[in-house]
């Protein structure tokens, strides 16, 4: 006789490839990508640099405000990297995956809204120390964004069959790019017409932060409604201890399989480069090339629009040539981008670099997620715990990348050297990825 958990799993499998569930899952990318684009990439970095002092003293030591921004990203991801394995294990053991998604979404969205109070003339905080409020809210928003993704990603093997991983993964990123671009265009219109609206550019930017929080929280409710219900298991004893045991069990399996372990090592290396470029490209453009806020938003729009096509392009390449070929091709392009960016002197050249980043940005994230999904054993039930390793390596790689970027800039005073150093992460990724084998999936396991 089957247990209640077995019956729940059978019910979940019967709903594989349900278009309504798939679209509901993808809408979560539509919702939270507003943070990734508007807060992390387009508007907040430039607003932070313009609102804070060029030199910020921390415990009496001077740092550039761009270095402080890089370190705040590192700090946020250190926290989530430490907490993620525990939370993922608990989610698998207790069956409360959606509950954790809700928690991180709520925290992140309201942290974005609180950025409205980050301004240079706050009455309750001196202008010299206003960076504390800005970085504090930004760190919480980043934790909320990243914390929800590990649970979101882990749903992929539960809602579609392996033959659809590439396509559905690409759909999620495409939804994210389209949704975030729409919101960014609205923000751009408000900022460009701030004077006619009777507000300052700074106030328009703060309105954008509020809009991101509302957008993120509201659209995520569609996802929560459509995704499978939590399979709440009866728990006994210390649930945190059980959570760690789930992680230990998954690691015991992973460490004996070079393909999945080798992919995770490769992913760690190249993700350090990818995520650092995405987070710090705006600060590079503003400091090295004197881009205005409006020009940067246009750059980001170009990047996002190209990324939509890039996600589907490399999903098709993966289908025709395999995931490994697609990933190696993209990593070669990423390496070239770092070298080209080092020599960029004019704005029009940076527009070309942004287009190149956009082409491989969506592809590298989408194909990486679907590749890892293929490497997870078919009979695995602890999908969240498996994705916690994927997630913790991504978060740790961001810490490594942004710390390297900030430290190199602080030591040399040259942000271009920081960009050039990122090429090393992509080269290491290419070397490690070339040693693994990735299964080709062509036939569906379940059909509607």
Oligomer: single chain
What's the helix count?
16
Number of strands: 2
SSE pattern: HHHEEHHHHHHHHHHHHH
Fourth CATH level, the homologous superfamily: MFS general substrate transporter like domains
The CATH class label is Mainly Alpha
CATH architecture: Up-down Bundle
Low-confidence stretches: 1-12, 441-448
Biggest sheet overview: 2 strands, antiparallel
How many separate structural domains?
Answer: 1
Percent of sequence in beta strands: under 5%
Shape call: globular
User: Strand order across the biggest sheet?
Assistant: 1-2
pLDDT averaged residue by residue: 83
Structural classification: mainly alpha
Q: What is the radius of gyration computed over CA atoms, rounded to a whole number of angstroms? A: 21 Å
Percent of residues in helical segments? over 70%
Q: CATH fold name, please?
A: Growth Hormone, Chain: A
C-alpha termini separation? 26 Å
Commentary on this structure:
There is one protein chain. By secondary structure, the chain is mainly alpha-helical. The protein has one domain: Up-down Bundle (Growth Hormone, Chain: A), CATH 1.20.1250.20. Helix content is 78%, strand content 2%. The protein has helices spanning 4-14, 19-42, 44-51, 65-94, 97-114, 131-154, 156-159, 165-192, 201-226, 239-254, 258-289, 293-321, 323-343, 347-375, 383-412, 415-433, and strands at residues 55-58, 61-64. Helix 4 crosses helix 10 (239-254). The protein starts with a helix and ends in a 15-residue tail after the last helix. Residues 1-12 and 441-448 have low confidence and may be disordered.
């Amino acid at each position: 006789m089957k247990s209640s958990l077995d019956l729940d799993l059978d019910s979940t499998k019967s709903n594989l490839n349900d278009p309504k569930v798939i679209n509901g899952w993808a809408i979560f990318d539509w919702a939270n990508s507003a943070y990734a684009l508007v807060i992390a990439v387009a508007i907040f970095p430039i607003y932070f640099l313009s609102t804070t002092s060029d030199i910020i003293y921390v415990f009496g030591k001077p740092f550039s405000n761009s270095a402080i921004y890089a370190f705040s990203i590192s700090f946020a991801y250190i926290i989530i990297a430490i907490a993620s394995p525990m939370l993922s294990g608990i989610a698998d053991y207790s069956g409360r995956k959606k509950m954790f998604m809700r928690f991180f979404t709520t925290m992140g969205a309201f942290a974005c809204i609180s950025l409205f109070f980050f301004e240079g003339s706050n009455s309750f905080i001196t202008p010299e120390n206003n960076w504390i409020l800005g970085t504090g809210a930004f760190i919480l928003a980043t934790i909320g964004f990243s914390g929800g993704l590990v649970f979101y990603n882990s749903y992929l093997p539960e809602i579609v069959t392996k033959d659809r991983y590439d396509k559905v993964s690409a759909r999620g990123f495409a939804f994210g790019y389209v949704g975030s671009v729409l919101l960014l265009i609205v923000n751009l219109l408000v900022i460009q017409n701030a004077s006619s609206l009777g507000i300052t550019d700074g106030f328009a930017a703060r309105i954008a932060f509020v809009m991101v929080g509302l957008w993120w929280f509201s659209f995520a409710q569609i996802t929560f409604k459509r995704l499978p219900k939590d399979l709440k298991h009866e728990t006994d004893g210390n649930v945190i201890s059980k959570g760690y045991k789930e992680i230990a069990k998954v690691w015991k399996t992973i460490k004996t399989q070079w393909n999945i372990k080798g992919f995770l090592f490769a992913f760690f290396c190249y993700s350090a480069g990818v995520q650092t470029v995405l987070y710090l490209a705006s600060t590079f453009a503003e400091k090295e090339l004197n881009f205005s806020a409006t020009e940067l938003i246009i750059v980001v729009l170009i990047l996002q629009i190209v990324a939509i096509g890039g996600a589907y392009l490399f999903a098709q390449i993966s289908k025709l040539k395999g995931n490994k070929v697609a990933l190696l091709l993209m990593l070669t392009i990423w390496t070239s981008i770092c070298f080209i960016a080092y020599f960029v002197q004019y704005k029009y050249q940076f527009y070309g670099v942004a287009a190149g980043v956009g082409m491989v940005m969506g592809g590298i994230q989408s194909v990486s997620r679907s590749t890892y999904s293929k490497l997870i054993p078919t009979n695995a039930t602890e999908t969240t715990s498996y994705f916690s390793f994927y997630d913790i390596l991504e978060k740790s790689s961001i810490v490594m990348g942004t710390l390297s970027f900030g430290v190199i800039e602080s030591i040399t005073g040259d942000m271009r050297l920081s960009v050039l150093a990122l090429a090393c992460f992509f080269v290491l990724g290419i070397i490690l990825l070339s040693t693994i084998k990735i299964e080709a999936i062509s036939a569906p396991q379940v059909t509607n």
